[in-house]
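If you are new to this repository, start here. Below is one unmodified record pulled from the training split, so you can see the exact layout before writing a loader.
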Amino acid sequence: MEVRGHAGAGPGQETADRAGAPPGRGVLEGAFHLLDVLSAAEGGAGLSELARDAGMPKATTYRLLRQLASLGAVQRHGQRYLVGRRLARLGDAWQPDPRLQAAAREPVRLLSSLTTTVTFLTVLEDDRIRVITATRGDITEVPPVLPGSELAGATAAGRVLLMHRPDDDAPPGFTPAEWRRARTAFRRAGSIAADHQDVLPGICCVAVPVRGPDGEVVASVSALAIRPAVPAGLSELVLRASREITRNLGRADARSAE
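And here is the target side for that same chain:
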């Protein structure tokens, strides 16, 4: 990413820098952009690294970091900055769409009961795969999947949601070549993503998109089996659960319109 220095800066850029925001951005937008960069830096990052990755002058980056640290959104350890506890607490307060959660709860529970799988509904939020609702039935080999939990983009649920982004570029976690292969396989499978022990040994998963009443993809429903191969008939049952969630969303819309 291009780094904008002070050399050759015009009056508008100087004004933006004095305000504590990168050129062309407001203070709030600049702060959130910097937090996005910082959240992706595992183990934190130094001032120069953050300025480079955010495309901001070091002086602007430093001023924003000081302001964010005073609010508890950023913490500093030595020469490295990390996401602060206050921001982490706010992130934990994320709430799923209650309408979607209600529409999926019974189909997800029934799917788990019929297939003896861990089933869950996920949504895409800024390239992050977040769980809306989940159940593992009698399966104890895996820990509970809680609402708000994040899944990797390489999972079947992640691939289903990432395939329907408006952006064709490779998302985080995929090289361009890997993303092209994933898109080709997804199209061949008719919008069904299957994980054949690709993420974890001994675990397979099937995921399909969930569409809203308007036809737009709003979520993904998945069934995870503790098996060396995808059980026969699992894909059809996941598709059936997806259609039932769509019907429930339609009924909810009809009730709210009355």
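Two things worth knowing about this chain: Confidence is low (pLDDT under 50) at residues 1-24. The beta strands are 45-46, 74-77, 80-83, 118-125, 128-135, 150-151, 193-196, 204-211, 217-225.
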